[in-house]
Design goal:
disordered N terminus, 7 strands, 7-stranded mixed beta sheet, about 325 residues, alpha/beta
């Protein structure tokens, strides 16, 4: 691929825009004069060619650095962002939280936190970048009635670590409870069990390591090993009413239905319930379960949706 096609391809524009903006405008003028010289005006001077080669090589180095930080190389998932999804997320979080400036601020903080946690932690945060940042940014803005948090299904515990930190950024004192079977791999009915793309085992040790990144509140988290539908598991953590419940366990329609029925019992008045992957075409059972649940007798009112998460408030 020549320099002109490299700079003008749609893939390159999407990947290189964040780093290309850092290059001096002088480079752009040199590229135009050297590459787009009209026919008949002769070849570009040797110094111009040398500068163009140096500039392109510098751009490639910056792209590689950016890829190592945010791209899929080595981490198994890309954390790069694009204008349109980000603007849409700002609007969705603002509609839920009622404050555009706070939505932009929280989403930006959530993105920085996501990158930091995945850089330092074991494994990854489950889900797409916009969905993760949406949850981390929205939950504090909904002003939960207390600081008790229950996460059903945690993978590596990294999302919980991020939520603890985001709550603390908003002046809260979170107390975290996690329910997960810690089966060594991510379990979902109807899907093949395979190692995580990060190469890290899904176990309680990894979760504890990641929770430690959130400081004292993360280290003090209560972890209950087991499936959320097990009576013993429920009995062990139903000793309080939760201001935030994140439902991200069994993604089947029946599994989600069971978790929603349990959430009805343990959500504090005014509590926030977050249903992950709602509306994601890969997991149709989640939307099916919530839509059916809301048609019956329920304490939950549907607040709205941001990325692929639905938000409910308990009466």
């Amino acid at each position: 691929m020549n320099s002109r096609s490299m700079l003008r391809s749609s893939v390159s524009r999407r990947l290189l825009r964040p780093v290309a903006d850092l290059i001096d405008q002088r480079i752009e003028r040199q590229v135009r004069s050297a590459v787009r010289r009209p026919p008949g005006q002769g070849a570009p001077a040797a110094p111009d060619i040398e500068r163009l080669v140096r500039d392109v090589e510098q751009l490639r180095r910056r792209q590689l650095t950016f890829e190592l930080l945010l791209g899929p190389r080595g981490r198994g998932i890309s954390r790069m962002v694009a204008d349109a999804p980000l603007e849409r997320l700002y609007a969705e979080v603002a509609a839920l939280g009622g404050d555009r400036d706070a939505a932009v601020r929280n989403v930006a903080a959530a993105f920085r936190l996501l990158v930091a946690l995945e850089s330092l932690g074991v494994g990854r945060v489950a889900g797409g970048t916009m969905n993760i940042c949406g949850k981390l940014g929205t939950i504090p803005l909904l002003d939960p009635p207390n600081d008790e948090i229950l996460e059903i299904g945690t993978l590596y515990g990294m999302f919980s670590a991020g939520l603890v930190r985001m709550m603390e950024r908003n002046g809260r004192s979170p107390s975290l409870t996690i329910v997960d079977p810690f089966a060594g791999v991510q379990l979902q009915p109807g899907t093949e069990q395979r190692p995580d793309p990060t190469g890290a085992p899904v176990d309680e040790q990894a979760v504890r390591t990641n929770l430690g990144l959130a400081g004292p509140a993360g280290a003090a988290a209560r972890i209950q090993r087991g499936f959320s539908e097990d009576p013993e598991t429920r009995a062990a953590v139903s000793d309080r009413r939760y201001g935030v419940i994140v439902v991200d366990g069994d993604h089947s329609a029946e599994g989600v239905a069971q978790d929603l029925r349990w959430a009805e019992e343990i959500a504090a008045p005014g509590g926030i319930v977050v249903l992950d992957d709602y509306g994601d075409p890969h997991w149709p059972g989640i939307k099916q379960a919530l839509d059916h649940h809301l048609k019956g007798e329920t304490r939950f009112a549907y607040l709205g949706k941001a990325a692929h998460s639905a938000y409910l408030r308990a009466s």
